[in-house]
User: Fold this.
Amino acid sequence: MRFYGVTVEERRQVGDYTLLRYRWDGAVEPGQFIMARAAGYPVTLDPFLARPFSIYDYDGGVASLLFEVRGRGTALLAGATERIEVSAPLGRGFDVVRAGGRAALLGGGVGVAPLKILSRRLAVLGVPHDVFLGFAHAAAAKVAREFPGAVVATMDGSAGLRGTVLDAAPNLGGYPAVYACGPNPMLAAVKRSVGDGTICRLSVEERMGCGNGSCNGCVVPVRGGGYVRSCVEGPVFDAEVLAW
Amino acid sequence: MVVGETEAVLAVELCGIPLATPLIPASGTLARESLDEVGGVYGAILPKTTTPAPREGNPPPRIAEAPAGMVNSIGLQNPGVRRFLQELDGWDLGVPIFVSVAGETVGEFAGLCERLAADDRVAAVELNLSCPNVERGGLTFCATPAAVEETVAACRAAAPGKPLLAKLTYEGVVENARAAAAAGVDALTVMNTIPALAIDARRQRVLLRGGLSGPAIKPVALRAVYDVSRAVGVPVVGSGGIASGIDVAEFMLAGATAVQVGTASFVRDPREILHEFAAYLAEMGLAAADLTRV
Assistant:
């Protein structure tokens, strides 16, 4: 895997999450991800692997990531002030061009990340859309201010409605196109809630080794049996393809 | 450094097969999708292990990180040998193609070898002897020297003209190497991952039981290559934690004729490893093929 040293433009805390912006020139599709780490070999023998992150936003010269510090890899990345190492954008994103009519975007926790760049793309394409965001609590929900007009729910009721992101989107069955990212149980619930014939695209969050299809570590089960790699065949899947 | 300038310096020969560089991808660590990134890096290409029938592989989680490495339990996910051969042209980078095979019985190993022996696109076959042998209660084909000898002998008979490599695990590696050599193997890949476990302390459960790879196992693999290359007369392909050009040199100095780069290619561009190795050779005034004879 090829990594590129990039300049950190900005790093700030948004509630529970870290927003990190870095200079990047090149094509970025909504729903794609990158592998990122604080520094390259041999500094990062431990933690060894880079971490996968959805691209949160991209304006043509600066890309950004939104992530939660969960372990040493993300802690080091959140502490990087000048340079980080990233791969080029990877994987299959949201095929937004095919989606007609009003779209619903649903994000759970840090799974809201790819919805920012997706919302930007939909706006460019003139696709009207509603955003629904679910979080555990208010500190995580602070990122919702980056999504003007979004309907917010928290599990403990400390911000927005009390409940899940699906409680925030009671009319999901009426949308012709639904895009979602979050934990697998949330994505499975979204899949069950959409109407027949709905375009439903789900971005999965899986542990990854390589990010480029080599290690077969990030697989998801597919309908009809077997597994496919979320890094190459995904991370965005047609809901119909997934087994759950 | 331009690799073209150092072509002759990097070349080695393995089982009579000329390799432009001593680097080979370890099985299961190079996706066809990223093949175009590694042109000129590898002396041979080695796709993920193929089996007689398609295999789904293990349910997730399949990987866990470790200091300087990772634990994996992929379960040989692959589309089976029939589709593998249909898609084999997609692996053509203009360098020899080595094919890694695994079976559940000695007969399956021999059957795969017979099939691949008839295919001119296949330069050599690597026997992945670390998988469970269903005829021996699930012990691996590497569990005893007798099992290694039986399997290699059957494959040798099934593919008399095709160079055969046997990939060994660390346990009993010298005795198994002797057994494989006695059965007519052409080269030995030393070594596979070593048994490892990952625990999820937050959930109080086993996360993963699998094999450890990466720089964490490098000194162990180096010792195995050194011991095996002094015990048997067949060439050794070093494998285990190689992540830099100096690592390549160390394995060759320990007795390897070529090396496999696996897990490190997830965190580095393997081209950097080749360039570091070429820089080392230039600094020392040596050619790659000289190192093995030191």
